[in-house]
């Protein structure tokens, strides 16, 4: 059984479909705790205690694999050996294939965590890379109001503004997926936190 830890209900269907593309039989359970992300956004730091309590609750279900889909809590995942962070495989791919990476984020709580991950991968690979921040935090208000269309459109506009400065754009949060629909003329590669696209 695969257990997903989300910080929003909007990710349930997305990751359910993603797994089903590869396996139609495996059991999947989704756990949602929006409060831990709200805490991080308000306090500027993660809620380690509540995160560990949520993981403990999930472990009672005895899953074979636990995946946290919230990039903000990536470093909390690193503290626990048996929970995978959604962004690590993508960071490895980025560092292996590019040297000038645009880091797009809408939640400020994600910026430092995602940057640290990329830098760690670069250090592990003894590779020098450049990170160009693409601050899409002004879009977050749309997400909070469940205006996903304007959320996606405003992200795409920000991403397009740094196209000439980077080789690739890393969409550091799963919620940013919708921006793909408004990047039809975008010439550079853009990579979602949950898949290579």
Shape: globular
CATH architecture of the largest domain: 3-Layer(aba) Sandwich
Largest sheet strand order: 2-1-3-4
CATH class category name of the largest domain: Alpha Beta
Figure out the total of helices: 8
What fraction, in percent, of the residue positions are helical? 40-55%
**How many strand elements?**
8
Structure description:
This protein is α/β, with parallel strands linked by helices. The protein folds into 2 domains: 2-85; 88-192, Rossmann fold (3-Layer(aba) Sandwich), CATH 3.40.50. It is 43% helix and 18% strand. It contains 8 helices and 8 strands, in the order βαβααβαβαβαβααββ. It has helices at 10-20, 34-43, 48-59, 74-78, 88-97, 108-124, 140-144, 148-161, and strands spanning 2-6, 28-32, 65-68, 84-85, 100-105, 130-135, 168-171, 189-192. Strands 2-1-3-4 form a 4-stranded parallel β-sheet, sandwiched between helices. A 4-stranded parallel β-sheet has the order 6-5-7-8. Helix 6 (108-124) links the parallel strand 5 (100-105) and strand 6. Helix 5 (88-97) packs across helix 6 (108-124). The two termini are 26 Å apart. The model has no long low-confidence stretch (mean pLDDT 91).
């Amino acid at each position: 059984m695969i257990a997903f830890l989300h910080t929003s209900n909007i990710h349930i269907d997305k990751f359910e479909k993603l797994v089903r593309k590869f396996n139609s039989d495996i059991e999947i359970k989704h756990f949602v705790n929006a409060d831990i992300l709200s805490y991080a956004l308000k306090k500027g730091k993660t809620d380690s205690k509540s995160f560990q309590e949520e993981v403990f609750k999930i472990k009672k279900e005895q899953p074979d694999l636990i995946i946290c889909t919230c990039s903000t809590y990536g470093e909390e995942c690193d503290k626990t050996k048996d929970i995978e962070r959604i962004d690590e495989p993508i960071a490895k791919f980025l560092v292996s294939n590019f040297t000038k990476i645009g880091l797009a984020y809408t939640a400020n709580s994600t910026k430092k965590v995602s940057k640290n991950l990329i830098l760690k991968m670069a250090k592990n690979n003894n590779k020098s890379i450049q990170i160009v921040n693409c601050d899409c935090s002004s879009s977050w208000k749309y997400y909070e109001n469940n205006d996903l269309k304007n959320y996606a459109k405003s992200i795409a506009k920000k991403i397009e503004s740094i196209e000439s400065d980077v080789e690739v754009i890393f969409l550091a949060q799963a919620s940013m997926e919708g921006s793909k629909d408004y990047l039809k003329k975008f010439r550079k590669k853009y990579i979602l936190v949950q898949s290579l696209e």
